[in-house]
Description:
Distance between the termini: 40 Å
Number of strands: 11
Amino acid sequence: QVQLVESGGGSVQTGGSLRLSCVASGITYGSACMGWFRQAPGKERTWVASVSTGGDNTYYADSVKGRFTISRDNAKNTLYLQMITLKPEDTAMYYCAAVRCQRLTEVRNWGQGTQVTVSS
């Protein structure tokens, strides 16, 4: 019943920007901590960022800190990931997820993903 639908992926050149969105349904969104994960071909899925229920607290993996911004609009049941200064190593499938607030990398529900490709 829970559905998370990502959008906004695409292909950009090094240094470019993208904004990913994730629309949630079947969940009490305002009570859900949320996060973004990514997985490159041949690599394990890794945590990128998480945000608290109200959006006041954000957390980032070292690899994206200073370049990515996670945010949310609870009135629209939507999660965002603003990505700037993109690098080829950011190329991956990006997944939206509902996560446990007590353990921000423990996933409760996954979206289907949206592809981000960064070319040099």
